[in-house]
TrEMBL record:
<feature type="short sequence motif" description="Interaction with polymerase core subunit RpoC">
    <location>
        <begin position="40"/>
        <end position="43"/>
    </location>
</feature>
<dbReference type="Pfam" id="PF04545">
    <property type="entry name" value="Sigma70_r4"/>
</dbReference>
<keyword id="KW-0805">Transcription regulation</keyword>
<dbReference type="InterPro" id="IPR007624">
    <property type="entry name" value="RNA_pol_sigma70_r3"/>
</dbReference>
<dbReference type="InterPro" id="IPR013324">
    <property type="entry name" value="RNA_pol_sigma_r3/r4-like"/>
</dbReference>
<keyword id="KW-0963">Cytoplasm</keyword>
<feature type="domain" description="RNA polymerase sigma-70">
    <location>
        <begin position="203"/>
        <end position="229"/>
    </location>
</feature>
<dbReference type="InterPro" id="IPR028617">
    <property type="entry name" value="Sigma70_FliA"/>
</dbReference>
<dbReference type="InterPro" id="IPR007627">
    <property type="entry name" value="RNA_pol_sigma70_r2"/>
</dbReference>
<dbReference type="GO" id="GO:0016987">
    <property type="term" value="F:sigma factor activity"/>
</dbReference>
<dbReference type="InterPro" id="IPR014284">
    <property type="entry name" value="RNA_pol_sigma-70_dom"/>
</dbReference>
<keyword id="KW-0731">Sigma factor</keyword>
<dbReference type="Pfam" id="PF04539">
    <property type="entry name" value="Sigma70_r3"/>
</dbReference>
<feature type="region of interest" description="Sigma-70 factor domain-4">
    <location>
        <begin position="182"/>
        <end position="230"/>
    </location>
</feature>
<dbReference type="GO" id="GO:0005737">
    <property type="term" value="C:cytoplasm"/>
</dbReference>
<protein>
    <recommendedName>
        <fullName>RNA polymerase sigma factor FliA</fullName>
    </recommendedName>
</protein>
<feature type="DNA-binding region" description="H-T-H motif">
    <location>
        <begin position="204"/>
        <end position="223"/>
    </location>
</feature>
Length: 243
């Protein structure tokens, strides 16, 4: 009976899942500014797929598509992180918004509405919404973005062994549960938006039709939801490390 060589198996896996690379790239592009090229994401995604095909271990009991999907997305996010395409001023403004979200939630005992948030920041509502628009793409959740300050990197604080995989943090029970709780505390419309986008994989236009708002408004709400989650996770990570 013919048994394919390891090289043949790798080639078959890459060929079978090449369309997945394009699908993940285009899914990410919805949240990125126009200066990011989809072909660049596809290229690094293919490299991630090839790496996944080479290192896949069938004995782990995980489907190759699941394993490869994580590697592909991870390669794309790493590339975007290195590009650092979000202006420092916008990044700083969004951190101020996230800090205000945390303060108001403690004061009110619930997530703050946009009008409340704008008043707290001392800015017109339109300016707050413009800031959220400018932050399009900041919706990508990078581990380093949870750092309390720029001089205290998350990886240095949580993973002293730099050879370790930083993504193991995402497997920690406390991190996962905190994120789940933060999602449950989102305003109802933002919870629905997250479900439609990440679970049902609707695009922004389709979500807008469900929510009865414009595509631009969906993008603002999405940025706002991720900013709330980022603020919650940063607060959790600023606490003493759990053992």
């Amino acid at each position: 009976m013919y048994k394919p060589s390891p090289q043949d198996l790798i080639a078959q896996r890459v060929t079978a899942l090449a369309p997945l690379v394009k699908r993940i790239a285009h899914h990410l592009m919805v949240r990125l500014p126009a200066n990011v090229e989809v072909d660049d994401l596809i290229q690094v995604g293919l490299m991630g797929l090839m790496e996944a095909a080479q290192h896949f271990d069938e004995t782990l009991g995980v489907q190759f598509e699941t394993f490869a999907g994580q590697r592909i997305r991870g390669a794309m996010l790493d590339e975007l992180r290195q590009l650092d395409w979000l202006p420092r001023q916008v990044r700083r403004q969004l951190k101020e918004v996230e800090s205000a979200m945390t303060q108001l939630e403690h004061q009110l005992g619930r997530p703050a509405g946009e009008s409340e948030l704008a008043r707290h920041l001392g800015m017109p509502l339109a300016d707050l919404q413009r800031t959220l628009d400018d932050g399009r793409g900041h919706q990508l959740l990078y581990l380093d973005d949870f750092a309390v300050d720029d001089d205290n990197p998350l990886i240095d604080r949580l993973l002293p062994d730099h050879a370790a995989n930083p993504h193991t943090l995402l497997e920690e029970d406390g991190f996962r549960q905190t994120l789940i709780d933060a999602i449950r505390r989102l305003p109802e419309r933002e919870q629905l938006l997250m479900s439609l986008y990440y679970e049902q994989e609707l695009n922004l236009k389709e979500i807008g039709e469900v929510l009865g708002v414009t595509e631009s408004r969906v993008s603002q709400l999405h940025t706002q939801a991720i900013s709330r989650l980022r603020a919650c996770m940063r607060e959790w990570l600023s606490e003493p490390r759990r053992n």
